[in-house]
Amino acid sequence: MVKHQPLQVYEKQVFLSFVTGIYGCRWKRYQRSQDDSSQWECAWFLILCSSFLLLLFWAYFWLVAQNDFNDFNWLVYNRSGEWKDETIPILTSTTLGLSYVSFLLILALFHISLGQQLNLFWVHKIGVLATLLITISGIVSVDDIWEDELDILLISFQSTAPFLHIGALVSVTALSWMVAAYVVRKERSNFQLMVLVIYFVSLLAVCLAPITFTCPCIMDRHTLKARPAIIGRRGAPMLAPENSILSFHRALQLGASTLEADVTISMDGVPFLMRDQTLRRTTDVSRVFPARQFQDASFFNWTEIRSLNAGTWFLQSDPYWTVRTLTPKDRSRIANLTVCSLVEMLRLSARANCSAWLNIHKPPPEHPRFRSWFMDTLRVLQRAGIVCFQVTWAPDTDRGRVRGLQQAANEKLSLEEIRQRGITSVRLHYSKISHRDIQEYLANNVSVTIYPVNGPWLYSLLWCSGVPSVSSDAPQVLRKVPYPIWLMSRGAYSFIWIFMSEPDCVGQWRMGGMQRCNPEQIMLCAVGRRPSPDVNIMKEKLILSGLMALSFPLGEESNDEPALKKSDY
C-alpha cells in the first residue's frame, strides 16, 4: 500500500502580503494568523466603520451644500471680519480623510473574506482616531455657524433618494458574501445569529425604503411644467462684483428675467445697492475712510459712497475662482467700478424691459432719513421711468402706501393671511417650504419664488415641483440646464425597485455556481479555519485524484494501484 505524505506547497501570496502588510504591517508569512480577531481589534474595526459612515455623511453634506457656499463664506465673514473661501480647506481635508478611511475599510473587508486576523497598525489607529475627531468637531462647528443648512440634507434626498436606494441595495448584496462566509466558517453561536438578524433587518429596511420618501421628479413627462424663470440675485455675482451695474448687465446677457438688488438709504436720502451692513468687504473704505470702516453703510452720504472703488476687492479676493476666466477688458472695467445707485439699476431694467425685485433695508431709528426713506425710494422709481407693475417691493410693509407695485412676502404665510394682505407672491428660502406647500400656493394663484438656487440638482427638483421662478447667484450655471437632470415615470421606478429587491435572482445564481463544485470542494469551503486530520486527508485525496486523472486515462491501471474510477472521486 502506498503511503502519501501530506503535501505542503508554499506559494507566493503577493495579494495577501499586500493586504496584511498595508493594514497591519505584517508583510511576512509567519506574521499572519487565521485565528479569531481579538475583541480589541474588533472594536477598532467598528471605529473604522463608524469613521467611514460619518465621513460619507460629511462628504455628502458638502456635496449638496455647494448650492450655498457663498452664504457660508458670508456668515464666516460676519464673524471673523475677513473674506476668504473657507470651503477649500474643508473640502480638501474631507476628500483626503474619506479616501484614507475607505482604503483601510476595504483592506479590513479583505481580511475578513480571506479569513485573516484583524490587526490594525498603530499608525493607522492614530490616523483613524484623528480623522474621526476632526470630522466630529467640523460637524459641531457647522451646526453652530450654519445650523439651518442641515435642512438641505432632507431636501436633497428628494433628488438623490432613488440612486442612493439602488446604491444601498448593491452594497447590501455585496456584503451578503462576507456575511455568508462568516457564518459558514464559524462555529454556531448566539453572536452569529445576531449578525444574521441584523443583516436581514437591514436588508428589509433597504428594500422598503422607497415607501418613506417622495421624489417630485418621479412623474410623467407630459405633466412637466414650464422651465422656471431665473432671477439674477444681485446680478451675476460670480462673474462681476455683486450689486454692480456690470453684474446686472451680465445677468441680462445670461437670460435673467428679473434683476434682484439690496437697497440701502444714504444719509442724504439716495438709495444705493449694498448687501452688507458696512462697506468693508465690497469697497476700499478702509483706505479712503479708515476711521469709519466699521460704520454702518447708511451713515455715509452719496458723495462719499460714490468716491469709493467697488471692484478691486473682487479681483483681489477672487471669491468664486472666476477671475482667471475674465478678459483683460472685463478686468479693467471691474477695476474702475463704483457703488451702483438704485436709479441706475432701474433704468437698466426699464431699457431691457425686465422686472426688478427690491429688498429694502430700512435705516436705523437714529438715521436722519428714518421717516422719509419710503418717499425717497418712490421718487427714484418715478425718475427711473420703469413701469410700476414690473417692480416687486419686499418686505411686505407699508401696504397702504405702496400702490401699483407688486408686493411679496419673505416669510411663509397661510393662505388666509395672504388674502388679507393682498399679497400675490412669496419669496422663500428653499428649506422653508415643502413640495406640498408649493402645490397649495400655486393652486390658489400665489406665485412662488425660491432662493438661493445655484445647483443644477436643486433647479431640476424645483422645476419638477412646478416652481415658476428661482433666485440665483449663478445664472450662468442654470442656463446650461435645458431639462431636469433626471425624470422617471412611476412605472419605470417601480420596475427598478422590484427588480433590484428580488432576492431569487441572486439565490439562483449562487446555487448554479455551487452545482459546478464536487462534494469535497464544497466541504472544504465550509470547514473551520483550524486544520484537522480529516481536512488534510480530504486535501490529499483531491490533489491525488487530480494528479492521477492527468497521469492515467480513465479505466487504465498502473503497476502500483488500480485505475481510478469515476465513483472514487
From TrEMBL:
Task: Give the bilayer topology.
Answer: Multi-pass membrane protein
Keywords of this entry: Glycoprotein, Hydrolase, Membrane, Transmembrane, Transmembrane helix
Q: Which InterPro entries match?
A: GP_PDE_dom, PLC-like_Pdiesterase_TIM-brl
- Tell me where it mainly resides: membrane
Is DNA damage given among the entry's keywords?
no
GO cellular component labels:
plasma membrane
Ranges annotated as spanning the membrane: 42-63, 88-110, 122-142, 162-184, 191-213
* Pfam hit, one: GDPD
MF terms from GO for this chain are: glycerophosphodiester phosphodiesterase activity
**Localization, UniProt:** Membrane
Residues in GP-PDE domain copies: 228-482
Organism domain of life = Eukaryota
In the record, biological process GO terms are: lipid metabolic process; positive regulation of neuron differentiation
Family of this protein: Belongs to the glycerophosphoryl diester phosphodiesterase family.
Protein name, per record: Glycerophosphodiester phosphodiesterase domain containing 5a
Whose protein is this, by species?
Oryzias sinensis (Chinese medaka)
Q: What is the lineage of its organism?
A: Eukaryota, Metazoa, Chordata, Craniata, Vertebrata
